[in-house]
Design goal:
- This protein has one domain: Uridine Diphospho-n-acetylenolpyruvylglucosamine Reductase, domain 3, CATH 3.30.465.10.
- Helices cover about 15% and strands about 35% of the residues.
- The protein has 1 helix and 3 strands; from the N terminus they run αβββ.
- The protein starts with 10 loop residues before the first helix and ends in a 7-residue tail after the last strand.
């Protein structure tokens, strides 16, 4: 997976940048076909994220 460079160093930072705000539980963002679902936050930090890979196309 390739991600454009930005002002973040962590997955939580990427999610925050994509949302344009602090993440909340239940938020989802899609980057490069991958979906990142926020499962837990602690203060300003994203604690747990579920990663959903891109769906495979059946041939």
């Amino acid at each position: 997976m390739r991600v454009a460079r930005g002002r973040y160093e962590t997955l939580g930072g990427l999610i925050t940048a994509e949302l344009g705000r602090l993440p909340q539980v239940g938020d989802q963002v899609e980057v490069g076909g991958w979906t990142f679902e926020v499962l837990a936050v602690e203060g300003f930090r994203v604690d747990w994220v579920r990663v959903h890979p891109p769906e495979r196309k059946h041939q």
